[in-house]
Amino acid sequence: MFAHYNIKFWKFPDSNLCPPIPGRVDYLHRIADLLKSTNTENQQILDIGTGASCVYPLLGHTEYNWNFVGTDIDENSLHFAQENINKNRLEKFITLRHQTDASKIFTGVINETDMFGASICNPPFYKSEQEALEATTRKLKGLNKESVNIVRNFAGTQNEIWYQGGEKAFLHNYLYESSLYKNQCFWFTTLVSKKELVDGMYRSLKKLGATDIKTINMGHGNKISRIVAWTFLSKTK
Q1: Any bridge partners for residue 216, and if so which?
Q2: 220 pLDDT above the threshold of 80
């Protein structure tokens, strides 16, 4: 982090996700392109589920000088995130907010006066702890590792990797709540792990009144991922 992004301090518990930096930076680059495509001058970004690493705000400010509001339901994660902010002297540029209702995404953390150029999100992918552990075991077998030796790259706390109803339920909650704050954020975006969820997202967003929907593909080695982005507003001039 220091060598490439001049981030002098980066610390978080072993139990939390260790984010792969290239993929996180690529997401931010795609958001920059998205903002540019609509001449969106608002450079404040909302990071849903910022996590203990606070990786998106740290990288986003370093790369693009953006301001961030990061939210999370886990107070311990926010404690470590705030330490990362303070030790890098970024208190003026990154603000954290505690989401006290785990069933909500935007409600309770967006204020009436808030305006964002974009929201970003790396959603939980699994329905339960058991499903997450089974997926981890499959990954480790593919790497010829014993499942008892869970490496840090496959770690993650409950709110980071599983959600009641899984990725589909989280995403459709995200879509619905975005429509309630459609005038306070130009682009809503999220990573989507399962390609088969994208068509359903498009159908839901059209019903909710989205004026533009995009799928942005990303590739890192053998891994293919995608961002779905949508807005309820018109292009700025």
Answers
A1: 227
A2: no
- Structurally, how many domains does the chain consist of? 1
Assess if residue 83 is contained within a domain: yes
Domain assignment present for 72: yes
End-to-end CA distance of the chain: give it in Å, rounded: 36
Measure the CA–CA gap between 224 and 175, rounded to whole angstroms: 22
CA distance 207 to 230: 13
Residue in 173, 180, 186 with CA at minimum distance from that of residue 233: 186
CA angle 53, 58, 61 (to 5 degrees): 165
CA distance 50 to 96: 9
**Nearest by Cα to 172 from 199, 150, 147:** 199
Domain of residue 67, CATH code: 3.40.50.150
Give the pLDDT of residue 150. 44
109-150 tens-digit pLDDT: 999 999 999 999 998 864 545 555 555 555 545 555 444 444
**Phi, psi values for residue 227, rounded to 5°:** -115, 135
Q: Is residue 145 part of a domain?
A: no
Is there a domain that residue 149 lies in? no
